[in-house]
């Protein structure tokens, strides 16, 4: 894929709108290193923003309209009336834009005028790298910067989550939006999703790099199964609350869950709770391992996370399992796991830089042989959060 530069954006904007844009912006995607399906259970997550993401070129209008065009969903220019926003999602990519606009208006922010906006991204579609959060934060950043609003990055992240929950209808946690909004180059973000307290963890990978493995298996089940898993966690929590004064599953240690496992008549609910509690513990240990520059331990924690997601949470699927188990077999790999909601999308692997070419060739060949189509591979460069592109 050709690089998306400011000049490319300006030229593409000019083709669509027959005028020059006044500003260009970028918003990253994200990968979650560890702490999967934790952000709606009040625990710790360890994501980072990546250099793949969503770009926009914009120009102000003198009316209350947004004119949107996406190079990734090439169709007609979409028009949004800011004075008469839709109250129901249409199943289009523009729902995320409308959701952000509605959230801003509900918080008392009036949009003085509209914009022509050309959008182009290099995140693979349906890959679980948070293209939706990337778009939400892109739109929020554009409005904040163009209108000079005093909105913090944390507030923009919460605005994005609200758009996804209340308008789009995906019952997501806060991790994706926080990871995108607060991304910091060469750092992961350790976020307590119960309190929103966060800190940065330096990602000193030495002679290793993070390889994103895109299964190219569309995540058709991800949203429905995501909501199902969330409901199962809520049911598990209610069982435990009969004996324990807890508000979230992640308040439990593994030992405490073991003590109260007898409360579970349904072994399925216990498996869901076991993944959540142990994954939260793994995330804490992963933070310590990175702080101590112990990549071997960090890699083993990635492996354990995937196994738990496969066996206890059951969200991996054949394609992701194939990628990860094949990655485990390569001598240059010290850890691999699925990342994101699961049921397709992406996995990540911690791979020796000197062996990346061999890794990509071998895993790619075995994956295609087993699954019947190619996987895509990217080196994950850890990036900053949303910003305006300068000359």
Instruction: Report the span from N to C terminus.
Output: 22 Å
Strand content: 15-25%
CATH topology of the largest domain: Ribosomal Protein S5, domain 2
| Number of distinct beta strands | 12
Radius of gyration from CA coordinates: 21 Å
CATH class of the largest domain: Alpha Beta
Mean pLDDT over the full residue set:
94
Helical coverage, percent range = 40-55%
Structural class: alpha+beta
CATH architecture term of the largest domain: 2-Layer Sandwich
Query: How many structural domains in the coordinates?
Result: 2
Structural shape: globular
The major sheet is characterized as: 8 strands, mixed
Order of helices and strands: HEEEEHEHHHEEEHHHHHEEHEE
EC number: 2.7.1.6
Catalytic activity: alpha-D-galactose + ATP = alpha-D-galactose 1-phosphate + ADP + H(+)
Binding site for ATP: 70, 126-132
Site (Transition state stabilizer): 30
